[in-house]
Q: What sequence folds into this?
């Protein structure tokens, strides 16, 4: 089969052997649609130390089950499924607490430490946990982002412990940030504030009714604007989905005292907490890896029309042009959000 392989800090389409069942809780999935994630770019650039050279990249996909292990009881051959970006057993200490990113037998494996989905077929370990049936009224496109980007957006809001009537600011109106805004609406906040330096993305957040207010910090005094909206207190919750030095600093500056700050972005360098400046704000910082445990719930919300992520697909490429798709995604040509790869 054809597969996109990362080796020696470069990617190449290569021939690989078909994956095989090696554990009774495995499933083999024929990939129907996949996407490229910023974390794939981090691997290519060497920012993910645990990533193994020679792997097939990719962890965000949907497809059809073509083979299952003997212990899989909740799935069958022919099922259309959405894949979780995390591999998790469901039985260890962390899984039982819902912290599946820290599964003692898994974690972020697909496309990182084992072969991922940017291939014609992929082996999914613990498939009874990591694969979710797609409702009949949904297309593969409708379900593509459930197990990663949408899950990450939901995770950010969940980490914030957003309460009804509170104000939430989302820094970064990229795919994860937009998904955080979409999910936040279901927690009934009083205000959703989108912050980004890309006016096109801010316009999308506004046009899609995902945010009540949008701000470009390069064009305004962001702290002043936030204070004007929050009776000079600052926001109750912040989701930091941008991943820059400036956005990290902004997250704690715009937060009110005793606020929750969710860090869901991946950074390429260390960040510093200026504790003397923060003293007395009593802030709570929570960080991810995503615990993507709400796939069934999110699929149900999409099925009922509560959430829609179709707008994220900026461009679609055939698998044979996936290297071209990586270039498009990385360089944000035509204001790219996400690309879909067809097989």
A:
């Amino acid at each position: 089969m054809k597969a996109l392989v990362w080796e020696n800090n470069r990617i190449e389409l290569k021939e690989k052997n078909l994956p095989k069942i090696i554990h009774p809780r495995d499933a083999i999935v024929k990939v129907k649609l996949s996407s490229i994630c910023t974390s794939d770019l981090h691997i290519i650039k060497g920012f993910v130390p645990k990533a193994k050279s020679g792997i097939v990249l990719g962890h965000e996909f949907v497809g059809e089950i073509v083979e299952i292990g003997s212990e899989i009881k909740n799935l069958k051959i022919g099922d259309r499924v959405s894949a979780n970006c995390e591999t998790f057993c469901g039985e260890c200490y962390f899984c039982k607490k819902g912290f599946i990113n820290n599964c003692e037998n898994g974690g972020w494996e697909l496309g990182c430490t084992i072969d991922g989905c940017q291939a014609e077929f992929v082996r999914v370990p613990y498939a009874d946990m990591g694969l979710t049936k797609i409702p009949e009224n949904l297309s593969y496109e409708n379900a593509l982002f459930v197990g990663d980007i949408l899950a990450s957006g939901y995770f950010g809001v969940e980490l914030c412990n957003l309460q009804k009537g509170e104000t939430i600011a989302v820094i970064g109106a990229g795919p994860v940030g937009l998904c955080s805004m979409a999910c936040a609406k279901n927690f009934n906040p009083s205000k959703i504030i989108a912050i980004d330096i890309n006016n096109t993305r801010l316009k999308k957040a506004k046009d899609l009714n995902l945010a009540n207010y949008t701000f470009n910090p390069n064009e305004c005094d962001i702290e002043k604007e936030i204070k004007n909206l929050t009776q000079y207190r600052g926001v109750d919750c912040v989701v930091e989905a941008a991943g820059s030095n400036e956005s990290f600093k902004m997250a704690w500056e715009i937060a009110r005292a005793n606020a929750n700050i969710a860090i869901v972005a991946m950074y390429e360098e260390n960040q510093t907490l200026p504790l003397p400046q923060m003293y007395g704000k009593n802030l709570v910082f929570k960080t991810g890896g995503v615990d993507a445990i709400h796939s069934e719930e999110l699929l149900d919300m999409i099925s009922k029309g509560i959430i829609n992520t179709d707008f994220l697909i900026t461009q679609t490429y055939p698998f044979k042009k996936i290297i071209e798709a990586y270039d498009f995604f990385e360089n944000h040509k035509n204001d790219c959000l996400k690309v879909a790869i067809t097989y």
User: Anything to note?
Assistant: The first strand starts at residue 2 and ends at 7. The mean pLDDT is 96. The chain has two domains: 2-148+291-342, 150-287.
